[in-house]
């Protein structure tokens, strides 16, 4: 296992939990070595985790030398469960995870909550918490939403796709629910999960590109998920690329997502003469691409190139050599990906052209799992009953 630098601040305890979940029992010295922190830091954090019942000491192992016996620490993944919820425009995706970040249960509800978010989300979460009261009691709720979210207050400052403005979602849900509630941006949630359980296993610095109706970018530098001023980082879709371009739902013209977001791709395909049914039409766009319709292939190739060049700009600014691509639009990746990869690599400056681009099958629960991981990372946010 690669030695890792720790995620700073409140993620250190969660990194210890994640490490024990992946590697099995380890001594304090072994944890310190793998996370590259001092043994005293590990001792301090593990003392708290033992006190909460989240980890336990096993029988000491005799030392091969004259030193003190090694005392392995073991994760107790069932000691606490948290619920993560991903809010999308037309549905909710939820998961229950243990302390090791692994999903123990999941659900999906075809529900539009944009017009009445507090009432509808409160009802759903109350039902989910109550349903598990006697089996896997929920210690906290993490909610992942699209848009600009203050991660401290849980206020959704702006979600253009949901038409939310300065919505105090965490406070409202917290008043109604019997457990702590955390609300954050959906891509930042998934980026945290990648740091703890995915790309972060091999990289201290990486990007997470989310492609769907909107475009987001999670940035990890020195094992810290970047939040920006008031938590507003990650709005990659609103990168201005053409001042005379289409009007974006943020109110500006020529944003990147107005060219390569799902809605934009569907509209461009229709303007090119491709017959797509009413509504979402994404599956029909995929079918048209797989049939080899030239107009659709041209639209997707152009979009992939623009997206790749835009990512190359971020790579050059931050000197990052690893990118993970996630999101609903991955169903189009066979047709977006080649142009994206070529443009991203060609656009990177020479020392960065060994860019690692990783694409994994998208699961709708990833944002939800990320929200749960954010809650686990909030020191003191959950306690054992």
From TrEMBL:
Matches recorded under Pfam families: MarR, ROK
GO MF term list: DNA-binding transcription factor activity
Domain of life of the source: Bacteria
Domain HTH marR-type: 13-58
InterPro entries: ATPase_NBD, HTH_MarR-typ, ROK, ROK_cs, WH-like_DNA-bd_sf, WH_DNA-bd_sf
Family the UniProt entry places it in: Belongs to the ROK (NagC/XylR) family.
Annotated protein name in UniProt: ROK family transcriptional regulator
